[in-house]
Design goal:
Order of helices and strands: HHHHHEHHEHHHH
Largest sheet: 2 strands, antiparallel
Helix content: 55-70%
Radius of gyration: 25 Å
Number of strands: 2
Strand order of the largest sheet: 1-2
Structural class: mainly alpha
């Protein structure tokens, strides 16, 4: 009986571990990382996880402040990496994973636990609406978290290496969306609750209704194509006139007077700014006397599949 060469199993090709392909795969192994930027990025994710722990214990305001500390770390890690010339693909991926925790999971969980607590104060637990409304709270939290994941994944795919291109965002950035939610949580806990929370039961009902809707709206803005300015880059890199510096004075005074109210005005105003500008541009984009545009040729199915959100 003649024995032929050994056949390879279908679907499992035999590879020589000492071949050139194996050596190339081994050479892609990460050998070192930049310590300081990576440490700051990890602090971003750690603040998000600690915020979830505090929210589970009912410390909603402290949990929200931890999300803001995560935002500061998210701004600093990129700055430090560029100053020390240690930018890398590893740092970008680590930053996105930390953002998914701090600006995706943490705000959704804080909102859910806050609304769940106020639902108990309404006194409507015995009604038949309890189960569907609680499911709606879960849907709102999950929807926001999934939108944050899609937003971060889309940014990684569409991100450009050129720093001059990082002056605008397509869709509300995940830190700004988280800022909308947690700034309202802080204002709710430290201002509104002390004024009317102990008196009006309708305050708890409004909380149960308003927070899930705001969270869903913030998630929709994240995955939209509405243009938003990159606030840190536009403030720090471009030259500003003295009039612009004087215009910042009321914002600084507002923060000194009431930081909670200033956070709500800043983040909610930033979120609505993009929507209002998008509406105005859409209305006046095409003048009545402008010639009609010729229809673009139809794309092939292969091109359509790659567009996404």
């Amino acid at each position: 009986m003649k024995i032929g060469p050994k056949k390879q199993k279908q679907g499992f090709p035999l590879r020589n571990p000492f071949s050139r392909e194996g050596s190339q795969r081994k050479s892609r192994r990460l050998k070192h990382i930049a310590f300081l930027p990576s440490f700051i990025t990890l602090m971003n994710g750690a603040c998000g996880l600690i915020a979830i722990i505090f929210a589970s214990n009912g410390n909603f305001a402290l949990a929200a402040y931890l999300v803001f500390i995560a935002m500061i770390a998210d701004v600093l890690d990129g700055r430090v990496a560029r100053l020390t010339r240690t930018t890398s693909s590893f740092g970008g991926q680590l930053d996105s994973l930390s953002d998914a925790i701090s600006f995706g999971t943490a705000p959704a969980f804080i909102m859910f636990k806050l609304v769940e607590l106020h639902w108990e104060y309404t006194g409507y637990q015995a009604l038949s609406l309890y189960v569907p409304l609680r499911r709606a709270m879960v849907v709102a939290a999950v929807f926001y978290a999934m939108c944050a994941l899609v937003r971060l994944a889309r940014f990684n795919v569409e991100n450009e290496e050129d720093e001059s291109a990082h002056m605008n965002f397509s869709g509300l950035p995940s830190p700004a969306a988280a800022g909308v939610v947690v700034s309202l949580v802080i204002f709710h806990q430290q201002i509104l609750y002390k004024i009317v929370g102990e008196v009006l039961r309708s305050f708890h009902v409004l909380t149960v209704i308003a927070f899930p809707l705001i969270t869903i709206f913030s998630g929709m803005l994240m995955v939209s194509r509405i243009r938003y300015p990159h606030a840190p880059n536009q403030l720090l890199r471009s030259k500003k006139s003295p009039a612009f510096l004087l215009a910042l004075l009321p914002a600084v005074l507002l923060m000194l007077w009431n930081i909670q109210f200033a956070l709500v005005v800043g983040f909610c105003g930033f979120g609505f700014f993009g929507v209002i500008r998008w509406v105005i541009v859409s209305l006046f984009k095409r003048s009545p006397n402008a010639p009609p545009k010729t229809p673009a040729p139809e794309t092939s199915p292969e091109q359509k599949d790659g567009e996404g959100l």
